[in-house]
User: What shape does this take?
Amino acid sequence: MISYIVYIYNRAIQWYWSFRARVQLRLRGVSLPRGFVVLGPLGLSARGRIVIGENVTIVNSSRFNRAGINHPTQLVAGQGATLTIGDNTGISGAAIFCSNSITIGNHVLIGANCRIYDTDFHPVDFMERRRRRPCSTAPIIIEDDVWLGEGVTILKGVTIGARSVIAAGSVVTKNIGSDTLAGGMPARPIRPVNGRNVA
Ligand SMILES: CC(C)(COP(=O)(O)OP(=O)(O)OC[C@H]1O[C@@H](n2cnc3c(N)ncnc32)[C@H](O)[C@@H]1OP(=O)(O)O)[C@@H](O)C(=O)NCCC(=O)NCCS
Assistant: This one.
């Protein structure tokens, strides 16, 4: 009986947060995706275009994912930018900031507290920062079936090939091929996902 009550309670919470997120999407002109599950409050800013595929799950609180989510997921598409999230992709407490183009494929797993920035936010040169000049931006592509471990950061211009795995805490500054386990700061290929270490 208690497990039934807990089940109903959890379903009600899932319904509430998913409904709230759907209202947020609708108010910002984002098409409503099918099978969209949201747990906890979602951060959303859509001055540009956000496209969300089918059966996407977004978790925004440690209450719903005990891996230790530090903050709600932020989905941001600036003016003229396009953020695309493919079908059956799961996101836990990520900050996805798109000022150019970010394309996330199908069946991608984005672990707790990842950051995906296609912009540096500020120029490297201090005088350009003072003058509020634009900074570097470049598109990011995360192909199908990629898994990003906890706390991974993906920076501008990076493509991660299909089925690759990025180790927890890595900072990815350059392209990673497909079927590759990569990690470190900056991330380097370590071994094929189904093979031995490169070294
Ligand atoms: C620091 C930064 C602005 C430099 O950008 P850049 O001048 O275009 O630098 P590059 O991409 O050419 O990288 C230069 C080298 O530093 C390495 N590198 C860059 N960022 C790195 C990081 N965070 N950790 C480790 N190495 C890094 C690159 O791999 C590259 O190595 P290489 O010379 O062996 O090829 C950028 O890497 C960055 O961190 N951007 C995000 C800034 C941010 O956090 N903004 C949000 C908060 S305000």
Notes: The chain has a mean pLDDT of 95. The chain has two helices and 19 strands.
